[in-house]
């Protein structure tokens, strides 16, 4: 019963990890949008 060993140590579940990754990607997209808008 060693199925729980491949979990990422930062979070308790994979669902939280995916939500975190999605939030980081959204923040990067928003930041890149404002960065390019300022220099256009």
Q: What is the typical, i.e. mean, pLDDT?
A: 82
Overall geometry comes to rod-shaped
What is the share of helical residues?
A: 55-70%
The major β-sheet equals:
none
Distance between the termini: 56 Å
Low-pLDDT parts are none
Rg estimate, integer Å: 16 Å
Query: Structural class, please?
Result: mainly alpha
Strand-residue fraction? Answer: under 5%
The total count of strands amounts to: 0
Order of helices and strands: H
Can you describe this structure?
- With 40 residues, the chain is mostly helical.
- The protein contains 1 helix and no strands.
- The chain has one helix at 14-38.
- The mean pLDDT is 82.
Write the topology of this structure.
Blueprint lengths: L13 H25 L2
Any key phrases for this structure?
40 residues; mainly alpha; rod-shaped
Concise structural overview:
The chain is mainly α. 62% of the residues lie in helices and 0% in strands.
């Amino acid at each position: 019963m060693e199925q729980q060993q491949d979990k990422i140590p930062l979070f308790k579940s994979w669902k939280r990890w995916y939500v975190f990754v999605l939030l980081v990607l959204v923040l990067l997209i928003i930041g890149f949008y404002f960065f390019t808008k300022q220099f256009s």
